[in-house]
Model the fold of this input.
Amino acid sequence: AQSVTQLGSHVSVSEGALVLLRCNYSSSVPPYLFWYVQYPNQGLQLLLKYTSAATLVKGINGFEAEFKKSETSFHLTKPSAHMSDAAEYFCAVSPTGGGNKLTFGTGTQLKVEL
Amino acid sequence: EPEVTQTPSHQVTQMGQEVILRCVPISNHLYFYWYRQILGQKVEFLVSFYNNEISEKSEIFDDQFSVERPDGSNFTLKIRSTKLEDSAMYFCASSEGQAYGYTFGSGTRLTVV
Done:
């Protein structure tokens, strides 16, 4: 079964600093990978997705992620954190061939400090 | 931008009662899903629905749960006899296909007392 592991349940950065949220996947073949953001008391918003095209994926709000097959990783980055980025971030995986459910990681709570 | 709409946003119910959570997926989407998130835990898959039938379900989705697409627009999740442990945020999602990503609704917070 496919799964994702998010390292660090809580990450704290200063405003203007680099954001790096880690996600590693487990799959026998490269899957589809997604990052979602959840603001307090809201639903899940798609930030970006990897679907076998370019390995560097750009998303909304200045976020991007790079698919690295050799490292089975799909880390999320943003060059300069903003206070409005404070939220919970979920990495998710879906198989490419048959069966299309999303399996989520445990989430990383991002805190942005002045 | 098209949205997935869920109603109600909050539902409080007595243990043992039936609840129906409602969702209006994006109109041209073909795949529909229910997920749940117990407070402080990760988002868990419940069921996927395609071509008017369940395509996959998790072990959580037992006989107490059912889904329906009663007309061309609504997608419902029914819990027949609620338990305390059913208290969670329930998210509906829809998709044109997995490569396109999934659009989630804002969720229904279900509290069983």
Chain A is about 0% helix and 50% strand. The interface with chain B takes residues 32, 34, 36, 42-46, 49, 51-52, 90, 92, 94-96, 99-107 of chain A (CB under 8 Å). The CA atoms of residues 94 and 101 of chain A lie 6 Å apart.
